[in-house]
Structures are given as C-alpha cells and as structure tokens.
Structure prediction request, 218 residues.
Amino acid sequence: MDMSGAQEIRTVLADDHELVRAGLTLLLERVPRVRVVGQASSGEELLAVARRERPALVVTDISMPGMNGLAAIGELRALPDPPRILVVSMHDSPDFIRRAMTLGASGYVMKEGSAVELEQAVRRVMGGHTYFSPQVSQKMMQRPDPAPEEVLTERQLEILVLIASGHASKEAAFKLGLSPKTVDVHRARIMERLGIDDVAGLTLYCVRHGLVDPRRAE
Prediction:
C-alpha cells in the first residue's frame, strides 16, 4: 500500500511502559501519514482513548495491568467504527497469537523487531491485509497446547489457576475447602495430563491460555 498520498492515519498506542510508548511513537510517526493522537497504559484506558479519538489504527501490547490487550482487542472490534489493530508484544506463544487474531487483530509483531518491520506491518494492516513477523509466522506453525477444558476437570482448573497464581497447596486447599493432600493429588494429575513437571511450567501454560494475568510470568 502506498500511503504517501493517503488520508492521515490517526493512531492510538497502548503499552504500560512509558519508554516503550515513547519509542514506538517516534517509530510510528516516521511512517508516512501516521499520527499518534493518543496513548494508553491499560486496556481500560485504551478503550476510553479509542472512543474519544476514533483512531483508524490501534497499536497495542498484550501484557498490561487491569484489562489486558487481548480483552481490549475484543472490545475495540465491537465499536461502531472499529480500528485496525496491530499487536506489538514480547509474547510469542502460538496461543497468544491465535487468540489475538481470533479476537480481531490484523497483525502481530515482536518488540525485538526492526523499525522497517513495524512500518511494513502498518502498511499491510492499513491496506486491509494481515501481517505476521517471520518469528510469529514460525510460531503459528507449531501445534497448540490442548485447551484446559479439554483435559482438566472443573476442580482441576480451579486448583491449576490458584497454583499458577502463586498459592501453595495449603493456601489452595483452604480457599477451596479441601485438604492439602487432595490438592497435591490433583496437582500431580494436572501435571501428568498436561505433560508439565514444574510450577513454572504450569504458570506459563495458564498465561498462554489466558487463565492468569500475563504480568505474573514476567
């Protein structure tokens, strides 16, 4: 898409790190006709700014406090005049990428990507196409994890989320009205069913499937 003679592209940028927003603003405004008209540091703030500014393009991270980027994408696409959405993230999980695209994102690039790649992504997305960086495309070819509800019972899901959120067996047992031994048995079965052998792996699995806040894994 040749944007040199196109209408101004009003853009809203969302990331919870101020320095990242400042850097992305500089890079985005090097793209012809792109003008950053608003910034946000959370999903809730992103929605408020988008409703006010009515941007043509939203560039957003996934991991933000409160409402994360994935939830915000779904809300943005439900607006009367929805913007095109480009995700710029550090998360390269195939499940994150697929969820972002399913919810309505048109592009996904990694934060470690180049300025040239960012411009290419903006051009493709604003031209009505989708764009995946080479790294993201490679991740998309991987087999996804089994969905939690496909392999775990409702009780096991409750225990999994508590463990992944940093609760010890005794704490999880108290919250659920179970004995610590019962929680330990469930945890062993959860690990067996998921093919995961440590708590860090369980936490990452929960993050990939949106069961816990991505910030917990950082």
